[in-house]
Design goal:
- This protein is α+β, with helices and mostly antiparallel strands and 111 residues long.
- The protein has one domain (3-107): HesB-like domain (Hypothetical Protein Aq_1857, Chain: A, Sandwich).
- Helix content is 18%, strand content 45%.
- It is built from 2 helices and 9 strands.
- It has helices at 6-18, 66-72, and strands at residues 3-4, 25-32, 38-45, 53-57, 60-64, 76-82, 85-91, 95-98, 104-107.
- A hairpin with a 2-residue loop joins strand 4 (53-57) and strand 5.
- The longest helix has 13 residues, at 6-18.
């Protein structure tokens, strides 16, 4: 299960209004790379794949592919602003290490 905080829902709605496309959703993805080995990718998309998992929070649709869900199950996506600006924050119970920017993480290798 993946969840969004109220502030994340508000920010996704705000960003969605700026998009030119209709019927778009937020795609959360994990890709190899970054300082800690894996990195988060957050983007808008218009097409789902047959094995995608879909979640909805207050009218905001989130889609995650099966590979990424292995690393994101239990994630809470938050949004906050500080003096440096606003950003999405990832509260991932699967991450055993994160980099300073918060967009890269590592998981424990299970045998």
């Amino acid at each position: 299960m993946i969840s969004l905080s109220r502030t994340a829902v508000g920010e996704v709605r705000r960003l969605k209004l700026k998009q030119q496309a209709i019927n778009i959703f937020l795609r959360l993805q994990v890709l190899p790379g970054g300082c800690s080995g894996l990195s988060y990718q957050v983007r808008f998309d218009q097409q789902t794949q047959p094995n995608d998992h879909t979640y909805e929070f207050h009218g905001v649709q989130i889609v995650v592919d099966p590979y990424s869900l292995n690393y994101l199950d239990g994630l809470t996506l938050d949004y906050s602003e500080d003096l440096m600006g606003g950003a999405f924050r990832f509260h991932n119970p699967n991450a055993v290490q994160t980099c300073g920017c918060g967009n890269s993480f590592a998981v424990s290798l299970q045998s």
